[in-house]
Amino acid sequence: MLRSDDLIFRINRVIRNVESNTGLDELDLSSRSILNFIGEAESQQRLLNVSDVVKGPGFGTAPTVYSRIAELERAGWIKCVQDPNDGRAKHVRLTPLARKAFAKMSAEAQKLFGRKSKA
């Protein structure tokens, strides 16, 4: 039976395992944080511009964040598309590759939460 104080460690193991199997573990921590930020916005049906990510919670200086966004796009994790209402702005979205990785993490975590835990 799963003890409640073991849950966080099991969740971390699930996340590390999925990251390893999907290639997410090849990204540095800052890039993974940016990817999580974009994914969380999408899960809440919020559309982010690149500038929203640059202003995000402590991802680094603007040049560093722009560089990380470009790396994530080259690696196929995100897609930047022109904002139809503002030619200067770009929306940032997860790719199917990223969505699949996050869906796998969610499914594995759900398996843990579906089990009965004892306090």
Please explain how this structure is put together:
The chain is α+β, with helices and mostly antiparallel strands and 119 residues long. It contains five helices and five strands, in the order E-H-H-E-H-H-E-E-H-E. It has helices at residues 7-22, 29-43, 50-54, 62-74, 96-114; strands at 2-3, 48-49, 78-83, 86-94, 117-118. The strands form two sheets. The chain has a three-stranded antiparallel sheet with strand order 2-4-3. Strands 1-5 form a two-stranded parallel sheet. Strand 3 (78-83) and strand 4 (86-94) form a beta hairpin. Helix 2 (29-43) packs across helix 4 (62-74). The radius of gyration is 16 Å and the shape is elongated. The model has no long low-confidence stretch (mean pLDDT 88).
Q: What is the strand and helix layout of this fold?
A:
Elements (H helix, E strand, L loop, with lengths): L1 E2 L3 H16 L6 H15 L4 E2 H5 L7 H13 L3 E6 L2 E9 L1 H19 L2 E2 L1
Parallel strand pairs: 1-5
Antiparallel strand pairs: 2-4, 3-4
Helix pairs in contact: 1-5, 2-4
